[in-house]
Amino acid sequence: MWQEPIGYANVNDGDIFQDIHPKRDLVASQSQKALKPIFFHKDLANHFVRPDWVNILGLRSSTENEVYTSFVRNKDLLNELDSQTQAVLRRPEFYTPFDDLTMYKSAVQLGNADMHPILGGATPTDFRFFENRTEGQTPAAKLAVARLVDVLHRLKKRVLIQPGDLIGSANNDCLHNKDVGTIRDEKALKERWLMKTVNVRSLQDHHAHFIEGRPRIVHG
Description:
With about 220 residues, this protein is of the alpha+beta class. Helices cover about 20% and strands about 30% of the residues. It is built from 5 helices and 14 strands. Strands 1, 2, 4, 10, 12, 13 and 14 form a 7-stranded mixed β-sheet that branches. Strands 3-11-5-9 form a 4-stranded antiparallel β-sheet. A 3-stranded antiparallel β-sheet has the order 7-6-8.
C-alpha cells in the first residue's frame, strides 16, 4: 500500500510532518492545536485535496490523563443508517466551512467552500463530514446530520495513544475525533505531543493543486 506524504500551504506553513500540540491562540479551535475535544470528522473534510490516509505517532503524553482518539468505520455507519437517511446524505445539500487550521493566518485565500453531499466523494461510501461544522441546508438534511451524529457516538471505539504508538487510518473509510475524559495533570495535557502525516495514493492525481516547484505542497 503506497503512500505519499503531502503538506498544505495554509497548514503549518506547508509542513509535511505536523505537530499535534496545543497552541495558545488555537486552544479553543477544532484543530490539531486544540487543548480540549475535537468533534468527529475526516481530515480536510471539504478541502479540494483530501488525504487518503492519516498517520499519527505518539511522542509525549501522561497516563494520568484520559485523552482518546475515537474511530468509527464507514461500513459500520452504513449498517446503522436507514436507506432514506443515506439517500439524503448523498444529496449536495450540506455545507462545511474550511477547517480552522486551513483558515488560520491563511497564506492562500480560499473564499467559501462548496456545497457538497456528505455520503459519496472519494468513494461511494466516503463520509465528508465534520461534526458541529457540517450543516444541512434543508430540513431533511438537518435531520440526516442529527441521525449521523447519534450513530457516530453510539459506535465509537476509543484508542489511547501512548509514546511510541503509531496509528494509521484510512481517511476515506472512517471518521475520528478527540475525546477528553478525566484530566489529573493539566500541565501534561498542555504538553501532549503527537506527530501526524497526511498521505495520498499518488502525487500525480493532485499535481494540478501543488505549488510550482514544491510537488508535495498543496496551494491552499
